[in-house]
Amino acid sequence: MGNENSSANKKIIVKVPGTSANCGCGFDCIGLAATIYNEFEFNFLAEKSLNISATGEGADTIPNDEKNIVWQSARLVFDRAGANDIQGAEIRMINRVPMSRGLGSSAAAIVAGLIGANAAVENHFSRNEILKFATEIEGHPDNVAPAIFGGFTVSVVDKNAVQTFSFVPKIKLKLVVAVPDFPLPTKIARQVLPKTVPLKDAIFNISRASMLVAALIEGKEKFLSFAFEDALHQPYRTKLVPGMKEVFTAAKNAGALGVALSGAGPCLIAFSSASKKIENHIAAEMVQTFKNFDVQANALILDLDTRGAIVEIKD
Ligand code: HSE
Asked: Between β-strands 50-56 and 88-95, what pairing exists: parallel, antiparallel or unpaired?
């Protein structure tokens, strides 16, 4: 690809939602996008120079050199598109998604880099190809898919492709998220998982994941009380999040339709379709119950994002 097609020196702005993967039963395949956003401004350069800066969540911990995941993701697009005329970048980030908490901060960074770079090469790749690249980098599609497409997403990884079905449920759900004050790297949360699971646990999850998607699409709220349950990962991860079971119980007692570990944790997410008053009550109960276990947490009450990543180009 030559200079005429790629766009060094255009300002590209990408806004990517935070995400919650798994939704309980949908381990590594179901996810949702939430109305909390990281913003990225790119100015891609012909010269080999990197100027990366961040403000907001985790700003001090973000590498500002070749190791930066946003830049690495952008680089992957340029390499695969053959855009050798882009060698550097100025990247500014405003981070609102808490880092290493199970709300998709790394997925947001990967998706931003890929989509920003793709815009610079005149959308050389389709969104499905971007999804494939994002899944390669992240290792599983359940955060990157909703970050790209918005809504709830169900993803299937096939040999050569990733297929994602994105939908907006008939039930208007509020997402009440308790955010503990400690990080939990996904790598550690995956190390506690078994290599094999009993058939009955597989059946437990298949039945609930199918029920969850059907109930959301048809708007059958009464099925949600058990549809978020999980036997494949949450039971093993309970020990990593003090008070997890009790926070789940408190949220349900306060009126939540269902509860789940958000991604690999440590955030816990409760789903509600009730009222602002009840959602505030759920949030307060979750925070207080965490406190009983010496975990400081704050609560976010979010909506479902239905658009996914958006990109704007300024000449
Ligand atoms: N599905 C992944 C997990 C999400 O639970 O490990 C974390 O990014």
From this structure: parallel
